[in-house]
């Protein structure tokens, strides 16, 4: 892991820096590269512009590791409201939720109940419901949550991380239930015995895991989502999809709002299914620092944004 990435991930865990950053408008301006605004209405307006280009969207209200179950109830209620807004908007929009945002740290059963409620609502309005993956300490519980929700609702997706050494086995264990999987590289600080410390190993795992899913997708046994901004890697995987006979409709490409925008448009114009992940909310600090850690060179862009 690079020194810059290590420093940024440590900064992400600092409550002091969190308080300082979220109280300063010049820092908030810099976040506009990755999010259109803190309000859900900001996210919906941005999605309408993307819709005109043929892009779908996946929305996340930022916030994790809640400490009160009442707060998890409020998050559930917010997403129930937001799903109603999506149904009324005509957007090809979906929601993606971290389990700790629904109280996983406090009660597995309560978190699962909230997931059932939201997956049912999402299904009722014709959307795919996404469960995000957090750091390695949550993987087993998140897999259990996904299997439980997936047993009742077909359109439920799960995020997996290619930098975790365990992910190939986790993927194989899910294949019998015909999963919907968004594969990302991973953005948490993890020890080397759990996660690959070198980018080349993470990239190789990403290619191998996605290739496995694309092959399964040709037979309808998996819906893979390529969740990376690594354009050469995406292009290699698109070629593998063609080699497997996997159609453009049998996999998706997901990227973050504001990153590789021209490439997102190009991939969409080439016939790929492209969805843009839009985040909103005031609890953006840890999420934002992890985005910077994925590519520390972005720090220079942030500095220029603050000055501008």
Q: How would you summarize what this structure contains?
A:
The chain is an alpha/beta fold.
Could you characterize the architecture of this molecule?
By secondary structure, this protein is α/β, with parallel strands linked by helices. Helix content is about 50%, strand content about 15%. An eight-stranded parallel beta barrel has the order 1-2-3-4-5-6-7-8, surrounded by six helices. β1, α5 and β2 form a beta-alpha-beta unit. It starts with a helix and ends with a helix. Mean pLDDT is about 90; it is low at about 300-308.
Structural class: alpha/beta
* Helical residues, percent: 40-55%
Cα gyration radius (Å): 18 Å
Q: Looking across the biggest beta sheet, what order are the strands in?
A: 1-2-3-4-5-6-7-8
Number of helices: 13
Low-confidence stretches: 299-308
Number of beta-strand segments: 8
Order of helices and strands: HHHHEHEHEHEHEHEHEHEHH
Mean pLDDT: 88
Strand content: 5-15%
Cα distance, first to last residue? 31 Å
Shape: globular
How do the strands and helices of this protein lay out in sequence?
Blueprint: H1 3-12, H2 15-22, H3 25-30, H4 40-51, E1 56-61, H5 69-89, E2 93-97, H6 108-124, E3 129-131, H7 139-150, E4 156-161, H8 167-174, E5 180-184, H9 199-218, E6 223-226, H10 231-244, E7 252-256, H11 261-269, E8 274-280, H12 285-294, H13 298-307
Parallel strand pairs: 1-2, 1-8, 2-3, 3-4, 4-5, 5-6, 6-7, 7-8
Helix pairs in contact: 1-12, 5-6, 6-7, 9-10
């Amino acid at each position: 892991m690079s020194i810059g990435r290590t420093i940024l991930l440590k900064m992400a865990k600092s409550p002091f820096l969190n308080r300082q950053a979220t109280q300063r408008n010049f820092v908030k301006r810099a976040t506009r590269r990755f999010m259109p605004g803190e309000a859900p209405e900001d996210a919906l307006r941005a999605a309408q512009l993307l819709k005109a280009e043929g892009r779908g969207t996946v929305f996340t209200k930022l916030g994790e590791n809640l400490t009160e179950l009442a707060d998890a109830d409020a998050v559930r209620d917010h997403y129930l409201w937001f799903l109603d807004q999506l149904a009324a908007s005509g957007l090809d929009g979906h929601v993606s939720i971290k389990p700790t945002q629904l109280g996983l740290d406090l009660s597995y059963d309560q978190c699962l109940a909230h997931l059932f409620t939201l997956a049912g609502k999402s299904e009722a309005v014709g959307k795919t419901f996404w469960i995000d993956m957090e750091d390695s300490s949550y993987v087993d519980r998140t897999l259990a949550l996904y299997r439980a929700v997936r047993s009742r609702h077909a359109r439920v997706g799960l995020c997996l991380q290619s930098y975790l050494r365990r992910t190939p086995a986790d993927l194989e264990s899910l294949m019998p239930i015909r999963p919907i999987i968004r594969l990302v590289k991973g953005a948490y600080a993890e020890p080397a015995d759990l996660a690959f410390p070198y980018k080349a190993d993470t990239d190789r795992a990403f290619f191998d895991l996605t290739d496995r899913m694309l092959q399964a997708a040709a037979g309808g046994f998996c819906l893979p989502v390529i969740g990376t901004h690594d354009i050469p890697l995406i292009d290699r995987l698109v070629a593998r999809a063609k080699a497997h006979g996997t159609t453009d409709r049998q996999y998706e490409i997901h990227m973050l709002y504001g990153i590789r925008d021209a490439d997102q448009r190009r991939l969409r114009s080439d016939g790929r299914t492209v969805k843009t992940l839009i985040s909103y909310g005031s609890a953006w600090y840890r999420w934002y620092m992890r985005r910077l850690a994925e590519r520390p060179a972005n720090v220079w862009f942030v500095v220029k944004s603050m000055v501008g």
